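Practice problem: predict the structure.
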Amino acid sequence: MTMNNLLYWAVVLFVVAIVAAFLGFGGIAGTAMGGAKIVFWAAIIIGVVMAVLGMMRRA
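Answer:
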């Protein structure tokens, strides 16, 4: 998976959480928000690791 795909899925899960919370489905909203957080931070960590590896390769 690329970082763009991970960020896309983080946004999708966030939107699902917002809609579920608006409709009163608290459990589903919480689960979707937790998934969005995990996917978002995974994308950030992978991006940072790739940036560091890219800088090491140039040096």
